[in-house]
Amino acid sequence: MRSLTAEEYVEAFKSFLDHSTEHQCMDEFNKKELPNIMARLGNGKSTINVLGVGSGTGEQDLKMIRILQATHPGVLIDNEIVEPNPQHVAAYKELVNQAPDLENVSFSWHQLTSSEYEQQVKEKGAHKKFDFIHMIQMLYRVEDIASTIKFFHSCLDHHGKLLIIILSDSSGWASLWKKYRHCLPSTDSGHYITSNGITDILKRLGIEYHIYEFPSGWDITKCFIDGDLVGGCMMDFLTGTKNFLGTAPPGLRRQLQEALCQPECSSKKDGRIIFSNNLSMIVVDS
Length: 286
Prior knowledge:
Radius of gyration: 19 Å
Largest sheet: 7 strands, mixed
Structural class: alpha/beta
Number of strands: 10
Shape: globular
Strand content: 15-25%
Order of helices and strands: HHHEHEHEHEHEHHEEHHHEEE
């Protein structure tokens, strides 16, 4: 067994997105809560500075940019992106090229990890301040979560907001990581972190925040169909392992499949197995 390469992760992640309500869940937050949060940004400035950390292919970024445009008509938006995956950066740029409604938005990409970006900023000594920073589903893969949050919080301007989107403690992931960690292979690189872990860090740092919880589900039915390519790809995403179903010892495979079916991880709906993918949106004050 081996860990996924960056390219393999992109493919496995796509199989997850295609069968989950992750983006619909974020859209609910964007619709219900984000306009009010965005309306308080910028403090009357002619340019609003935005930083996306681990922005992926940019779909969620552009949705948030458009909400910012709607709440601050005519204001210039300076949008910087930190994203290490070259395929994601290329897809993001293509998305921007095809969008007709971003004329007051400037884009600059840094093909770097968040820690590389942090190092670069510290070496330059010039500390640009941002009105809005977002870190969507990316803190699982940073080296030091607390120092990463501390650094990006220090990049906020007065009245700025940092949005962290992370898996909720009510999600199946939280149960899987806490109760059934022994079912996951050692090839699964990354932190098993959920919202309580983030809010504990914020409390230790003495930083104010608000938390919003939104339900989301992931249809993992195909993970239980022998030889199903999509199911195999989803299991690769779940375990961070290339061809988990084909290379894992049968005992480990069976244990994990049994764990996924536990009521604290998933529910059955119309004959489908829906894994709980609930999200926490944590809005951090400057």
